[in-house]
Structures are given as structure tokens and as C-alpha cells.
Design a protein that fits this description.
CATH topology of the largest domain: Hypothetical protein af1432
Strand order of the largest sheet: 8-7-6-9-11-10
Number of domains: 3
Shape: elongated
Number of helices: 22
Largest sheet: 6 strands, mixed
Distance between the termini: 54 Å
Radius of gyration: 26 Å
CATH architecture of the largest domain: Orthogonal Bundle
Strand content: 15-25%
CATH superfamily of the largest domain: Hypothetical protein af1432
Structural class: alpha/beta
Helix content: 40-55%
Number of strands: 14
CATH class of the largest domain: Mainly Alpha
């Protein structure tokens, strides 16, 4: 019997200068978590700068790859399939012939993106995960580099340049000086790059993701998640200079870096160095999301676009893993009196913690807190800064076991300041109390009230409901201590 989904998946085939990738996403979700993701390295753009044509061997590989991907999406019954071609197909003299061959062979429509369209989609991919992104998005592919400004959820000035890693390698070879001159020649034409000063630079593309792995290793950063990994520009320039001058043999020793990327890293590092110096950002942020996710975001219904990506993912996790999914929003309202002056960022993190505070209920009790901490660190959140990811993980750790002086607590202390640590402990202890009072069941907390008043933590409960015949225990004392209160006071109130 065939099971009907609420909404069919959606697919995007990205025909790039070096590789072709198929991503299939859940069409009903706000965040583009791939249901299927496969890449074929075809090197369509190899030799393009010299011949002006697509690599013949790459064309045959590309036709085979696209045929496989189209067949897979039809078997998956995708709701819609976008086939997008970028710089190599756009610039090649035989690009149009290649497109016609694909369209005739597989009964599809191939959209060849202009440089501007490619730049805008890359920026939308960043905005999909970081709605508040402010600065310059730099998307590096095999055939081109796109630069585009983002602010207030909108896309601004943009430019595309023939500075992809394949193009640069072909034009400059191993001559670092010649490559630098080529980069400077194009960048100095972009007068608006100085508007990036004091804002963020968002680095997008596979070669720069490989550089991010090297930066993580060099700085001994405690979290290896690539998305939103950020660096001070001065530290970034120091490490990037090392990469640009490293031998292939040295780069091979870095864990997690694909050997296929190694030859491109010195040029990619040199290009990133030049862009940082041109834009003078206050931080460098690596994003794993770009053009494909931008196309996904562009296609989303407006109601989904307006959702916060972190809250949307946490709500989905609660719906599929919590015992009582509706309890998360009740927790958010119940705890509000303890956080009267929280910032929007703090409120978002508290809401996320409330939503996921019960999704680990079926873990083994001896390992539940540790598993919850580690899983939150590695969940497929989109656009969540590492600082916020660790704050959320630490809050859930405290929710399950109280304070932690072990390795996980030390990781949190390494990334968070004293005020953030205190807030995480307070949120975690409050969630622990909320679950103790309600048993995690919905509609009970609404009958109670928690507040801190003149040095006392007060819990008002209805006197006529036996569900609240609970005894004071360490959970109550810990929360009182986190609030600098003397104790928790029960007040049994007769409902009006």
C-alpha cells in the first residue's frame, strides 16, 4: 500500500563548473534538510578559459549524471524539480547545445542562471539560515566568484567575476603573483566592497568550507560544525596565509579535508585573503548554504519564509520526538516571569530550549544528559552561531542533570561568558522544575504560577488538584539558588 505524504519532496540539480549535485528536500519544511544528496565530479569547466568550450569528457559524465538524477527524482515523486546551470554552461560557446541535449534527452527544462541571478540565489541561501545577516556574501565556485550585499533580509549590490578556482588555476597555474594580480584586477572594479567594512563577510563554497576545517583545527575550536563557524579577520588572515603557502603534503594531514579539494586550496585561500582585505569585515562567517538553498528558499510559501529557522526546526523536533509536543509553548509562557528583561536573541534561545526540552525522554537515563548535550550540538540547525548552539546544548544538559563540572560544562565555559552561563543554568533548572511539576503533561502548568519576589521563589498551585501534591526536593532548591533566592515557597491557592 502506498503511503501518501502531506507534501511531496522538492529537488534541485545544480550543474556547476566542477561538479553536478542533486539535493532533494522536504517541501513542507522551513529549513532545507536534504532527504537525499549526491554529487558527481564532472569538471565541465576544465579548459574553458583556453578553448571557450565545455570539457568534452566532462560533458559525457554530466549527461550521465543528470540522467541518473532525473530518474531518481521521478522515482521519489518530487513535487517540482529545478535544474540550474551556472558559470561554465553560461560562458561556454557550446553551452546552449549542451542544454538542448539535456532537455531533449530527459524531458526537463534547464535554467541557465545569469551571474546576477547566481549571486542573488547565493545571498538568499545565506538569508534562509541567517535572516539577520548583514554584510557581504562571497560565493566561490569552479567557474566564478559572486559577491553580493545583504541587509535587513534583502539582497543589494552584486557582481560576478571569472575567479572560480578552475578558472584561476588555468589562468595563473602555480604563479601566486600572477593569481594575485588577476584577483586585484577584478576586485578593484567593485567600488561598493568598502560598504562591507565593520560588517560580516559570509564565505560560501566547497573550497572555503575546506579552509574552515583547517581553521577549526588550527584554533582548536571545540565544535567541528562548519556552518556559522566564525573568526576574527586578523586570525583568519594568519591561518589563510598558512594555507596559501602550504604544500599539498602538509594539507593532506588536516582531518576532514577532501583530497579532491587540496589542489584548489592555495588559490581559494589567496582569494579569500584579498576579499577580507578589500571588505575589512568585523568577522568572517563560513556558511554551508548557498545557491541551492537560495532556490529552495525562493520557492517557499510566504508563511514558511516568515518563520524563524531555529524555532521552526525545534518545533518539528518536538512534534516528532516529544511525548507532548504542545508542552513547549506552555513552558515558554510559564517561565517568562523569571526573564523580565531578555533580549530577542535570549528569548529565541529560551523558546528553542523549551521546545526541545523533552525530545530525549527515551534515551537511557544513565546517559540521557550527555546524549542530549551532544545531539543538540550536532542537530541540523541552520544558521545558528556556535555560541548559541553551545548555549542551547548546555541548557538542555542542565535540564536533565543539573549543573555540570565535567567536560561538557568546561566546553560551555570556554565559549560562553559568565552571564550567558548563568542564564543557561537558570533556564535549565527552571525547565527541570517545570517537568517535575507537570510530569511533562500539557495543560497543567497553566493552572500554576511561578515568580521570584523579594528574595523568595514562589510557586502558586491550585489547592483542589491532587496532581500538585508534590514535595519540595533538590530541583526546587537548585532553581532558587540559580535565582539567588533563599528558597522555594509553595502557595496553595483556591481557584476563583
Amino acid at each position: 500500500m502506498k503511503i501518501k505524504r502531506k507534501q511531496e519532496p522538492v529537488g534541485i540539480v545544480d550543474i556547476g563548473s566542477n561538479s553536478i549535485r542533486l539535493c532533494v528536500y522536504d517541501g513542507a519544511a522551513r529549513v532545507p534538510v536534504p532527504l537525499f544528496n549526491e554529487k558527481a565530479v564532472c569538471a565541465l569547466g576544465q579548459g574553458l578559459g583556453t578553448s571557450g568550450r565545455l570539457n568534452p569528457e566532462g560533458v559525457e559524465k554530466a549527461v550521465a549524471a543528470v540522467g541518473r538524477f532525473v530518474a531518481l527524482t521521478r522515482a521519489m515523486e518530487v513535487e517540482w524539480l529545478d535544474v540550474l546551470a551556472t558559470a561554465a554552461v553560461r560562458d561556454a560557446g557550446d553551452g546552449a547545445d549542451f542544454v538542448r541535449r539535456l532537455e531533449r534527452s530527459f524531458d526537463i527544462e534547464v535554467k541557465v542562471l545569469s551571474g546576477g541571478q547566481e549571486a542573488k540565489l547565493a545571498a538568499l541561501g545565506v538569508l534562509c539560515g541567517i535572516p539577520e545577516a548583514d554584510g557581504v556574501v562571497a560565493d566561490l565556485g569552479g567557474g566564478s566568484l559572486e559577491l553580493v550585499t545583504v541587509q535587513d533580509g534583502d539582497v543589494g549590490g552584486h557582481v560576478t567575476m571569472p575567479l572560480g578556482v578552475l578558472r584561476m588555476a588555468e589562468a595563473a597555474g602555480d604563479d601566486r603573483g600572477k593569481a594575485g594580480e588577476l584577483i586585484d584586477h577584478h576586485l578593484k572594479k567593485v567600488k561598493w566592497l568598502t560598504t562591507g567594512r565593520g560588517r560580516a563577510l559570509y564565505a560560501v563554497g566547497g573550497a572555503w568550507r575546506a579552509i574552515a576545517r583547517i581553521c577549526i583545527a588550527q584554533t582548536h575550536h571545540p565544535l567541528t560544525v562548519l556552518d556559522t563557524f566564525s573568526l576574527d579577520p586578523r586570525e583568519a588572515l594568519r591561518i589563510i596565509d598558512l594555507v596559501a603557502n602550504q604544500s599539498r603534503k602538509s594539507l593532506e594531514k588536516v582531518p576532514g579535508v577532501s583530497k579532491k579539494r587540496l589542489s584548489a586550496l592555495p588559490l581559494a585561500a589567496l582569494l579569500l585573503d584579498r576579499i577580507i582585505r578589500a571588505t575589512q569585515p568585523d568577522r568572517l562567517v563560513f556558511s554551508i548554504y548557498g545557491m541551492r538553498e537560495g532556490q529552495f528558499f525562493k520557492r517557499l510559501p510566504e508563511r514558511l519564509k516568515q518563520q524563524n529557522p531555529l524555532i521552526s526546526v525545534c518545533r518539528l523536533l518536538a512534534q516528532t520526538n516529544s511525548r507532548f509536543p504542545e508542552h513547549g509553548d506552555e513552558l515558554m509562557a510559564w517561565l517568562a516571569p523569571l526573564f523580565p528583561q531578555e533580549t530577542p536573541r535570549e528569548a529565541k534561545l529560551r523558546h528553542a530550549a523549551c521546545l526541545v526540552s523533552d525530545i530525549f525522554w527515551n534515551e537511557h537515563p544513565d546517559y540521557r544528559a550527555e546524549q542530549a548535550f551532544l545531539k543538540v550540538l550536532r542537530l541540523p540547525f541552520m544558521g545558528v552561531p556556535h555560541r548559541d548552539r553551545i548555549a542551547l546544548a548546555y541548557t538542555i544538559l542542565v535540564r536533565y542533570q543539573g549543573d555540570d563540572d565535567g567536560a561538557h560544562g568546561r566546553m560551555a565555559a570556554q565559549m560562553l561568558d559568565d552571564d550567558e552561563l548563568r542564564r543557561c543554568r537558570l533556564s535549565g533548572q527552571a525547565l527541570r522544575l517545570a517537568h517535575a511539576v507537570s510530569g511533562g503533561a500539557p495543560n497543567l502548568l497553566k493552572q500554576t504560577r511561578l515568580l521570584a519576589d523579594r528574595g523568595q521563589l514562589i510557586l502558586d498551585v491550585p489547592a483542589d488538584n491532587p496532581a500538585f501534591a508534590i514535595e519540595n526536593d533538590r530541583t526546587f532548591d537548585r532553581l532558587a539558588k540559580a535565582l539567588d533566592c533563599e528558597s522555594l515557597v509553595f502557595r496553595r491557592v483556591i481557584p476563583a
